[in-house]
Amino acid sequence: MSVFVHPQGLCESETIGDGTRIWAFAHVLPGARIGRDCNICDHVFIENDVVVGDRVTIKCGVQLWDGVRLEDDVFVGPNVTFTNDPFPRSKIYPERFAQTVVARGASIGANATILPGVRIGANAMVGAGAVVTRDVPANAVIVGNPATIVNYANAVHDTPATFNTTQQVGVRECSVPGVTVHTFPLVGDMRGKLTVGEFTDQVPFVPKRFFMVFDVPGRNVRGQHAHKVCHQFLICTHGSCSVMVDDGTRREEIRLDSPNLAVYMPPMIWGVQYKYSPDAVLLVFASDPYDANDYVRDYDEFLALLAKDPPARP
């Protein structure tokens, strides 16, 4: 294996992995480090303090400035703009440029703008033209200016065809093992409506704590963590929101849009709540008192814990 540099390309770095191809009018400065089997397309500029992993594709018209880190298997679309200084001035340089990280397997669509210092999580997808102003969670699909989460990659979605909240009272298994979706009876007459559930007959644990989430700005995302020990039971008592559950391999989005619907999440399930309606009130029952050490807030740490000690699922 060897490195291919087009006759009209300029590669000043000697730290280039085997199988990497650098095409016409691309310019790689001496300090840059590029991994194996990468494809650096026409008119790409790569500055000195840049690290690119293996099997990365960088399409035409991209500039990677000091501080950019692209992990393995990243895709960067045409004319994506990276930035590294939040307050740029001509001939005035910061002591240290902000570090921007695009984690393994993430994709960035054409003409997106990435502000300095953000982290784009593993397997995330940034839509074309998006302006990324904040960190992006692993697996999130984001679009817009400023970019917001609209979906999660490779997620299964509930639809009325597979789950009817008014007819199928009971419990169904989610596509993520261990997670269950509960529909409680909904009784109504001229006096109003009522729904009811019982611990531990219908809810699989006796709660020791509850909390409520409300007045969430519609673009904000809650959760983004797993619990090592704690079980949770989520009900949207008013309005609606979506719950994303993820076991590290499979993920499913469950829409809670009726107070007789609930989601049970066992320990070591990554959970995200988003797509809140302005009037949403999310009630969460927890099996244990609050313990900061029970939270797993980093997705890579979550995957490592699963690999080390996979939980038993029914």
TrEMBL record:
Coiled coil: none annotated. It comes from the Bacteria. InterPro entries: Hexapep, Hexapep_transf_CS, QdtA_cupin_dom, RmlC-like_jellyroll, RmlC_Cupin_sf, Trans_hexapeptide_repeat, Trimer_LpxA-like_sf. Residues 179-305 form the Sugar 3,4-ketoisomerase QdtA cupin domain. Keywords: Acyltransferase, Repeat, Transferase. Belongs to the transferase hexapeptide repeat family. This is Acetyltransferase-like isoleucine patch superfamily enzyme/dTDP-4-dehydrorhamnose 3,5-epimerase-like enzyme.
